[in-house]
Specification:
The protein has 15 helices and 15 strands. With about 400 residues, it is of the alpha/beta class. Strand 11, helix 6 and strand 12 form a beta-alpha-beta unit. Helix 7 packs antiparallel against helix 8 and helix 8 crosses helix 14. The radius of gyration is 27 Å and the shape is elongated. Bound molecules: adenosine-5'-triphosphate and magnesium ion (MG). The site of adenosine-5'-triphosphate has 18 residues, from helix 5, strand 11 and helix 12.
């Protein structure tokens, strides 16, 4: 009996004109994720199908669970769209399953198929009752759902469902530049942005020797976790030491964080231009710290006209932590290595900075050339998804 993985697109179904583009992007992403496996993938406007080797299912599932654009998938048995063939197949399949109550749900996509869904449910239900001892129908809480999709040419029968991670396929939007610190918020922001279809490059600002190589490794590890959801990720490491030292030498302590973040945004915009990113993404959350009050954000944001996407802006910390745990970044984020923001935190960072004062503080040192040097000297690390122990065996 032949089985395929049957993929449902979910949110993509709301797309009209550019639906084919979304489906094709998803197709390419799945093909890329499964390139190590012996699979055949084909698609139509409402479903994608993967022929696979049974022994690979566990590993394939692990990959599919990280592909955005998949709403749900099933392992389905294929049969010709023919009433007798469907009846025979259902009858055979239920013999090997143990259950006491069931319900049949038919979806008739092939409108030329002469038997309507309700009638199919009834016919198949009575076949099961007749051929399987001790079972009854329970339409409210069945132990077993027998789902049948009647499509043109082939029909699909399945008993299981796996939830995909939803969203839009990565690559259905242009690239974004994620400011990735070693904290909890920014990996979550990156994940949520990717879920909207945005491929990301990551940018990490370090201030060696004030920050350690362990802090950088933490960010590499976080990038690996994000790479599970996309292809390899480019992590650009910015040497921020000189700029930070100049800020702390010249500016009023209360304004150091505001100025530091304005410098970061300036560098981000230049890096976005250099690496063809269209937006800046970060883990800022309204009110979380002094630099994330709305007043601070507006003074900091003033240095760039590039859109800044803040996926966790309105989440509270517990909501962010929940996602961080789900995507397995939390335990890395809480490792205690300090990054450049925490090393230099002043006692009383300004909560309501003014643009006028920020400009005054900045004018106390020559930053243009420092920024350009930081952009020119950026060190790019290509981070690949960590293969699981199982994939290593392939
Ligand atoms: P996170 O917000 O990721 O938990 P954090 O709380 O230490 O880390 P904040 O001070 O809240 O960071 O900074 C807000 C955002 O600015 C971060 O979410 C991140 O996007 C960006 N950011 C801060 N520090 C860095 C850094 N060293 N490199 C890159 N981006 C940074
Ligand atoms: Mg934060």
């Amino acid at each position: 009996m032949k089985r395929v993985i049957l993929i449902k697109y979910g949110e993509l179904t709301t797309k009209k004109g550019n639906r084919n583009f979304f489906i094709h992007t998803l197709y390419q992403n799945i093909k890329n994720k499964l390139k190590k496996f012996d699979v055949t993938i084909y698609k139509d406007r409402s479903r994608m199908y993967i022929e696979f080797l049974d022994s690979d299912f566990h590993f394939i599932k692990e990959k599919l669970d990280c592909v955005f654009g998949i709403h749900m998938y099933h392992v389905a048995y294929i049969v010709d769209t023919n009433i007798d063939a469907i009846k025979d197949m259902v009858c055979q399949l239920v013999q090997d399953i143990s259950f006491s109550t069931f319900k049949v749900e038919t979806k008739r996509s092939d409108k030329s198929f002469p038997v309507h869904s309700q009638e199919m449910n009834r016919i198949l239900g009575s076949i099961v009752l007749k051929n399987k001892d001790g079972v009854t129908v329970d339409v409210h809480h069945p132990e077993l759902f027998i789902k049948v999709e009647v499509r043109e040419g082939h029909s699909y029968i399945y008993f299981n469902e796996y939830h995909g991670c939803g969203g839009y396929p990565i690559g259905s939007q242009p690239k974004g530049m994620l400011m990735l610190s070693g904290g909890i918020d920014s990996p979550v922001a990156g994940y949520l942005a990717m879920k909207r279809g945005i491929p990301i490059d990551c940018v990490y600002f370090e201030a060696i020797p004030h920050t350690s190589l362990e802090a950088r490794n933490k960010v590499v590890e976080l990038s690996k976790k994000l790479a599970k959801y996309s292809d390899e990720i480019h992590l650009h490491v910015v040497n921020f030491t000189k700029i930070q030292e100049e800020i702390y030498k010249n500016c009023h302590p209360n304004y150091c964080i505001t100025i530091m973040r304005r410098m970061m945004y300036r560098i981000m915009e230049k890096l976005a231009n250099k690496y063809h990113g269209l937006v800046i993404i970060n883990g800022e959350s309204i009110g979380q710290v002094a630099s994330q009050t709305l007043t601070s954000m507006s003074v900091i944001n003033e240095v760039t006209s590039m859109p800044v996407i803040r996926p966790v802006a309105c989440f509270d910390k517990l909501e962010i932590i929940d996602i961080a745990k789900k995507i397995d970044t939390y335990n890395i984020s809480i490792l205690p290595f300090e990054d450049c923001c925490t090393v230099f935190v002043p006692k009383h960072p300004v909560i309501n900075p003014t643009l006028e004062q920020a400009l005054k503080e900045e004018s106390k040192f020559e930053y243009e050339s420092l920024i350009q040097n930081a952009v020119d000297d950026v060190n790019t690390i290509v981070v690949k998804e960590e293969d699981s122990e199982f994939s290593d065996l392939l």
